[in-house]
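Board notes, transcribed. Complex of a protein with heme C.
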Amino acid sequence: LRTRLLWLALPVVLAACGAPAPPVGEQPLDTAFRNEGLTRTETLGQRVFVSRCATCHGEKGRGDGQNAYNLDPPPPDFAQTLPALPEPERRLVVMEGTAALGRSAMCPPWGRSLEARETDAVLAYLEALARPMK
Ligand code: HEC
């Protein structure tokens, strides 16, 4: 009986080993950040970004969100533009929208809807997007 039980357990064990990790957003923060090569804060920022910003900017900030084609000017490819945008100006955009830089009002202000911790985290994620990613 013992061995029969072991055989019954085998497929379960195999399935558990082969199962792909759940999407980053569904993993506990403590394990998720290790999987993407991001810090813990950047991972929190990634979650904020995916829920609030990716609809226009795309998940990796490449300017390819599903709403991007609707916008004029379109959201830029962060990998190209963010290195030239200093942190204080990034923060200004996140808090008050691109209008605060004298540009279009296409990027909405988030100062009222994000907690300070979320703002800091999303800025950390922007920094991660601005550096070359694997
Ligand atoms: C409704 C679509 C939309 C959403 C949602 C949105 N953005 Fe934007 N964003 C844009 C557009 C369009 C631009 C370019 C506007 C311009 O240059 O006039 C932009 C520009 C920016 C820039 C300036 C980039 C650069 O290098 O010039 C930053 C930073 C930015 N967005 C961050 C964010 C963050 C962070 C969020 C989420 C908290 C967010 N955006 C949400 C549309 C959006």
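Residues 52-53, 55-57, 67, 71, 73-76, 81-82, 85, 90, 93-94, 98, 103-104, 106-108, 110, 122, 126 surround heme C (CB under 6 Å). The CA atoms of residues 58 and 64 lie 5 Å apart.
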